[in-house]
Amino acid sequence: MRVAFVTQGARVPASRFRVDQIVPALSAHVACTVLPASPSVYGDLVSGKLHGNWRTLAQPLSVVSRLRQLGAIERHDVAWLQRPMVQYGFTALERHVAARVPTVFDFDDAIFHNSWGLARFKVRRIIDAAHHVVVGNRYLADFVDAPGKTTIIPTVVDADRYAVRPDPGDGPFTIVWTGLSSNLKELAPYAAAFRRVLAETGGRLVIIADRLDAPFLDGMAVEFVTWSPEVEVSALAAGHVGVMPIADSKYNRGKCGFKLIQYMARAIPVVASPVGANRDIVRDGVDGFHAATVDAWADALLTLARDADLRRRMGASARQRVVDGYSVTAVVPQYLDVLARVTA
Predict the structure, then answer these.
(1) Which of 69, 83, 231, 289 pairs with 177 at a CA distance of 20 to 30 A?
(2) How high is the pLDDT of residue 148?
(3) Residue 53: per-residue pLDDT
């Protein structure tokens, strides 16, 4: 079987984790070709040198690259579309592909809430055209509303790459957060909790992101690490605990809790807002804690700061949970099942 994985770009996070890292394991069973948009659908070059309005100006070139790929896609037995093929509102390309090749549409965020909710019409048209839909969690599956042609596959990590790290021990209590700088705002409602914990423990907050633009962190002991594929794993090792605070919004209910999976794979206990997939990933009191208020966040972090044995137990449970359900090895059979269904 020949499968064309049509991704949004070579450096797009969703493409890297929902396709690029899966393909090596999947290639033992089927012939895989990855076809990224170039530049990405967002206008990113592989070099990453375009920013702001320059990215927008480059987006039409991604449409040109898609048109050039159509012939190659049609020579495959399955087309696996990782999110929409272009950033614009039309769906002619997806419908063209689906009319010629069994097509899987894969998405892992509530992208139907984008563009003031107008994106739902585009996403719905692609869903209707696709032969099967793969989503990252139950909230997204509920939107698809087609149980007979929908499979939930979480966004996962390569457990070998995200290896267990030893608890940092008696060093400064370190809270780690990783993600896009645009999501740093999710930390703001709980800034008082972080400030209190860092003051009481003499600890620090490590931020791993593309840039640091968060005035609410001023006055805290913050260490900034510039994100890159080369440091995204190693930079987590310093963390005694990993955090994922998010507001309970429609868009956030569609998130797949990926940063939690990254922390947990490295045997780092976590504290997370009990929103969307976070509830399913983190077993409260086993892998870490759920926290919904400023006081609950402070209490959970201080509990972990004061008890190294608890951190180690929770970290070990977290690691095993990832290996069992949120690793590449765990989900490859699900990918193969989807491919078998669309070609039956």
Answers:
(1) 83
(2) 96
(3) 65
Q: Is 276 left (phi over 0), alpha (psi -120 to 50) or beta?
A: left
Task: Count the Cβ atoms, other than its own, within 10 Å of residue 344.
Answer: 6
Per-residue pLDDT at 44? 82
Q: What is the pLDDT of residue 240?
A: 98
Q: Are residues 11 and 34 in the same domain?
A: yes
Same domain, 258 and 206: yes
Give just the sign of the alpha carbon dihedral 18, 48, 185, 270.
Answer: positive
Q: Which tokens sit at 303?
A: 């509990």
Same domain for 78 and 152? yes
Residue 256: CA count within 13 A, CB half-sphere: 25
Q: How many structural domains does the chain have?
A: 2
Q: For residues 141 and 252, state if they share a domain.
A: no
Q: Cα 337 vs. chain centroid, distance in angstroms? A: 22
> Range of 139's domain?
2-156+328-343
170 falls in which pLDDT band (50, 70, 90)?
confident
| b/e code 326-340 from CB counts within 10 Å (16+ = b) | bbbebbbeebeebbe
Specify whether 116 is located in the same domain as 231: no
Same domain membership, residue 194 and residue 139:
no
Helix (H, G, I), strand (E, B) or coil at 105: strand
331: Cβ contacts below 8 Å, ≥ 6 apart:
22, 153, 154, 156
Maximum Cα–Cα distance across the chain: 62
Q: For residue 131, give the CATH number of its domain.
A: 3.40.50.2000
pLDDT band at residue 238 under the 50/70/90 scheme:
very high
With 0.90 as the threshold, say if the pTM is over it: yes
pLDDT tens per residue, range 140-166: 999 999 999 999 999 999 999 999 999
Count CB atoms within 10 A of the CB of residue 271.
27
Q: Angle formed by the axes of helices 308-325 and 294-306, to 10°?
A: 110
Where are any strands of DSSP class E within 69-173? 78-82, 103-107, 132-135, 150-152
